[in-house]
Amino acid sequence: MGVPEGETKPEEQRLGPVLRRRDQVQPGTTDQRLLDTEGDSEWVHTDPWRVMRIQSEFVEGFGALAELPSAISVFGSARTKPDSSEYEAGVRIGKALVEAGFAVITGGGPGAMEAANKGARDAKGVSVGLGIELPFEQGLNPHVDIGVNFRYFFVRKTMFVKYAQGFVVLPGGLGTLDELFEALTLVQTRKVTRFPIVLFGTEYWKGLVDWLRDSVVAGGKASERDLLLFHVTDDVDEAVALVTKETGK
């Protein structure tokens, strides 16, 4: 709106709780700038606006998952083939977790994630998928009953930890390793109450475990007791027994 013709610019301006005087007086009003359809749209790419988007993702995630029963997050590769033994193990783990009284949370994608969601759904349990925006669109697999898609990895990882009482980690790639070490770090630093982390597939994880013991721990970069933060197994019943025992269910 600016200053009406024939009127001088005011010496004092109140914008909500803010007082502006003299040269700091701005033209127009806050409402006018809000409702004005013209102008620069670059503001939607600024950090303050990103903060609002991040906040909205937390609110949506908390709202969608707040009433979940006790749950276990199952991680694993999106590239696991449906006809593989790893996929079959994922289905059996998802089903066994539901039968033990847990909901199943995965990244919602294909492969090992789909397998765990399928097992949970087959067992008539709660099957949750937490997706992520990626350059290559994956979408949520058809076995997800509650799905939330996130823009930001760190918001998604918060949901994995906040709403799970433990982790089962199937063979996977960089994303799976990221989730695994995030969980290990949170437990090691006591940012979360200690809860079980189970690596499923001894042959697959053997090299990583050997490296942690023979290089990381032996080199003084971690403590011997840090190797006790996780368990390794090939047995579905043992994996479920471990999370059941340590979560008190």
Flag low-confidence runs: none
Which series of helices and strands comes N to C?
EEHHEHEHEEHEHEHEH
Give the overall shape: elongated
Count of individual beta strands: 9
Describe the structure.
There is one protein chain. The chain contains eight helices and nine strands. A seven-stranded parallel sheet has the order 6-5-4-3-7-8-9, with helices on both faces. Strands 1-2 form a two-stranded antiparallel ribbon. The protein is elongated. The protein is of the alpha/beta class. Helix 3 (85-99) runs parallel beside helix 4 and helix 3 (85-99) runs parallel beside helix 8 (236-247). The mean pLDDT is 88. 42% of the residues lie in helices and 15% in strands. Helix 3 (85-99) links the parallel strand 3 (71-75) and strand 4. The protein has helices spanning 30-35, 47-65, 85-99, 112-122, 153-162, 174-188, 202-217, 236-247, and strands at 12-15, 18-21, 71-75, 103-106, 127-132, 146-150, 167-169, 197-200, 231-233.
